[in-house]
Specification:
Blueprint: E1 4-6, E2 20-22, E3 27-30, E4 44-48, E5 56-60, E6 79-81, E7 93-97, E8 102-106, E9 115-119, H1 126-136, E10 142-144, E11 153-157, E12 160-161, E13 167-168, E14 171-174, E15 176-178, E16 188-194, H2 201-214, H3 219-227, E17 228-233, H4 238-242, H5 268-280, E18 286-292, H6 299-305, E19 331-333, H7 341-347, E20 362-365, H8 372-392
Parallel strand pairs: 3-5, 16-17, 16-18, 18-20
Antiparallel strand pairs: 1-4, 2-3, 4-9, 5-8, 6-9, 7-8, 10-15, 11-14, 12-13, 15-17, 19-20
Helix pairs in contact: 2-8, 3-8
Length: about 400
């Protein structure tokens, strides 16, 4: 049986016309799409007919690092799975080839199923996001955000081409609020978003783990719900995720979706979200935009990135990260960056919260894929741990201490 190479509808991203299969040699040559800045940073494909075989996969890497070979290519090899929801596995062999530059992947043992997915990062499909929302909607701590329907959606994006031959269907934009609604006392206002860069799927694993924890029975989660009202945007670029794009969106295909928040008219999706932000997030006290890095910067530099220092209104957050077991899995940026979503929420367009802002986080998790899904999810939970810790320490207008000043989360 011949091996058939395809692009899965929900998240695939390869140039099929420039890819090929040599059944005789057992070689699959894949040309990722240059979906952003003339480079491929995210790719996903489907192989059918591989049961009992050990095919070799060549990922053509020209243009990845300015047309040069790089040792970092070995860290950019991706994973494989029999199902898009995993589990995901490493390749036995990852080597760097030249003429042309490419990453060669192979397994020592044959596949024992007929169909296999490859993804640069483990996939997090749009279908899975919608299933998450359906499950979260059942929680007693979840309410539709202002203007949202019972299914938690507040708008529907019309179908659109991803710019590369695929039609992205209608997609809902969701927003909901999490809190302990039995507590009527004043609360801090927070917000979290995911999907800004849809190809950065490790960030969505962290985001989903954060929300799951927030709705859990853990004492820290209950503590957060008591003192916070958190607005959740589960996916702000759904058609980019469905369309297999990395940093762009179908309605702004040549732009970095995280750099156009101050450019009205560039993206209808962006403009729709901004209207919702302006309605729901005045005076936000905490904001986390979940992303991931494209490669491992190394632990020493990530220790640097994980400390906020004296950036605007963030004094004191640095020591909150000392309890993180692997600081390389969390990147923290202050609100001074005005050209992206964090800057839009906290520093411009009438949303400047000024001195009332006690801490603003932009979350990006280290994404050498070797960290794995368990570490991505652990990172999301740690964000919640530290939010509880910071709240009881009095970093926000509404502190969570009892009358004796006791601290609960050290």
């Amino acid at each position: 049986m011949a091996i058939v190479l395809s692009e899965p509808l929900d998240g695939g991203s390869i140039d099929l016309a420039s890819s090929s299969v040599d059944d005789g040699a057992g070689l699959i040559t894949v040309q990722p799409r240059f979906t952003f800045n003339s480079r491929w940073w995210w790719t996903c494909f489907h192989m059918v007919g591989v049961d009992g075989l050990t095919p070799t996969v060549d990922l053509l890497a020209t243009n990845l690092f300015n047309n040069t070979a790089s040792a970092n290519l070995n860290a950019r090899h991706g994973a494989w799975a029999y199902d898009p929801d995993g589990p995901w596995f490493d390749w036995t062999s990852v080597t760097q080839q030249s003429s042309p530059y490419r990453i060669r992947l192979a397994n020592a043992a044959p596949f024992d199923q007929d169909a296999v997915y490859y993804a640069y990062y483990p996939m997090y499909t749009w279908a899975r996001v919608e299933a998450d929302v359906l499950g979260w909607a059942m929680s007693e701590y979840v309410r539709p955000a202002s203007g949202s329907a019972a299914d938690l959606s507040f708008d529907t994006l019309p179908s659109i081409s991803n710019g590369q031959g695929r039609i992205c269907p209608d997609a809902k934009l969701y927003a909901f609020e999490v809190s302990d609604w039995s507590v009527s006392a004043a609360k801090n206002l927070g917000a979290v978003t995911s999907g800004n860069h849809p190809g950065e799927t490790p960030g969505h694993y962290a985001f989903a783990a954060f929300v799951d924890f927030l709705l859990s029975d853990d004492l820290r989660a209950a503590f957060i719900r008591k003192h916070w009202r958190i607005v959740v945007y589960p996916e702000i670029n759904p058609q980019g995720r469905y369309g297999g794009l990395f940093r762009s969106a179908p309605d702004a295909p040549t732009s970095d979706f995280n750099r156009i928040w101050e450019d009205p008219g560039t993206s209808d999706t962006c403009d729709t979200l901004k209207a919702s932000f302006q309605n729901l997030l005045p005076g936000v006290n905490f904001f986390a935009d979940f992303h991931c890095y494209n490669f491992d910067y190394g632990q020493s530099s990530n220790y640097r990135d994980a400390t906020v220092g004296d950036e605007k209104n963030n004094e004191g957050w640095t020591d909150l990260y000392r309890e993180f077991e692997t600081p390389h899995a969390l990147m923290v940026f202050g609100p001074e960056v005005s050209g992206n979503l964090r800057g839009h929420i906290v520093g411009s367009s009438g949303l400047d919260v000024g001195d009332s802002l006690k801490a603003v986080l932009g979350i990006e998790i280290g994404s050498s894929r070797n960290y794995g899904i368990a570490e991505y999810e652990r990172c999301g939970r740690r964000v919640a741990y530290n939010l509880a810790y910071a709240t009881e320490r009095g970093f926000f207008p509404v502190a969570g201490r009892d009358l004796g000043g006791r601290r609960y989360f050290r």
